[in-house]
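Q: Hi! Curious about what J domain-containing protein looks like structurally. Here's the sequence.
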Amino acid sequence: MDFWDWRRFVFHLLILHSIFASQLLLLQPLVSAQDGKPGNAADLFKRVSESIMLKHYSEALDNLNDAIEADPTLSEAYRHRASVLRHLCRFEESVKNYKKFLELKPGTSAAEKELSQLLQAQSALDTALTLFDSGDFAKSLDYIDKVVLVFSPACSKAKLLKVKLLLAAEDYSGAISESGYILKEDENNLEALLLRGRAYYYLADHDVALRHFQKGLRLDPEHSELKKAYFGLKNLLKKTKSAEDNVVKGKLRLAVEDFKGALALDPNHIAHNVHLHLGLCKVLVKLGRGKDALNSCTEVLKIDAELIEALVQRGEAKLLTEDWEGAVEDLKSAAQKSPQDMNIREALMRAEKSLKLSKRKDWYKILGISKTASISEIKRAYKKLALQWHPDKNVDNREEAEAKFREIAAAYEVLGDDEKRVRFDRGEDIEDMGMGMGGGGGGFNPFGGGGQQFTFQFEGGFPGGFHF
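A: Let's find out. The predicted structure is below.
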């Protein structure tokens, strides 16, 4: 063989070697680890494990799909793929891969155990969904946390259901945290954006809620639930602002209607409705609608029993409804919570004075006259009642008549005297005036004094110089 023939031989040999090396590199990942030839199969499964740790499940599946396509007998690839699919709760696909692996490697206890776990996770997820639909949220959450996400930690369906369960349990911070994990893996997950927005909404963090709804609608402008959430919140904010603006403008009746309209939009939005109820209560107090204001303030305190402003406003509402004791109780509680607030202390003093006045006798009411009655009207009322209740004319019920007669005389004693009447109208303590206003004293006594028995003579004189 001459030089050139030898050179051509070596050249062809090098080309064949290169082709063989390339094919070997392609075939190496397909070499089965169980054959005792670790080669690149071990590297493949290592990469797959790393991808799973990084939650790059699609990448792991792509690698495994390629390997199985190249070598359908690569048993460990089926097991790894089954495991990835189990993590993602793609249960039916996962079962097929476990069964294929067990066909190739029958009796592998670890794989049989994983298949059992898969079936438990699948059953638990079905049960959790049924419990969710029936309203048993706590038990449903147990199945998700203790079974499904243990055996299928990357199950998106289970994670989203968990967020829904946290929302139903009013654990809004938990819902925000869990939905945040989902969005880290998939920032465009529409359902996660919707649920996280709802959690912020129920915490009354409306700006952040709107941003989540808006992002979702940019991705899918026709998403019905996102549209409903977004426009519902916009309408609520619009109604709320209208109510507040009308209060500032002094249009209180319009404000009442706006507050009621805003409250009707979402009765479950507790964090926002507490402020709507309080705003409505304050407006109703200003309008003098005590009974309605009382109801609104009570709604506030059902939500937040420690809200001082609600206690004050309910105290004012109770003053309007003449529930003096209730007003004192509410205002005293508010004063204890905020002892430095002079406005609360002044309101409490008003309530205590009203309570005290409510316990004294209403001389106007006893004589059956209005507070604007003239002196001649007072005298006529007294004369009429004195005749009606004179003990000599009520022999059969003399004790009752005497008590009534004293009361009528005491009323005239105060109201028939200009100075005493003015002081009474101002709410001053005048217990030494007239009878029935306090224990003892030198008050007026139509039956005489000194322990002497008084004998009624109908024809005789009456207090005030009346003669009949």
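A: A fun detail: Residues 109-134 form the longest helix (26 residues).
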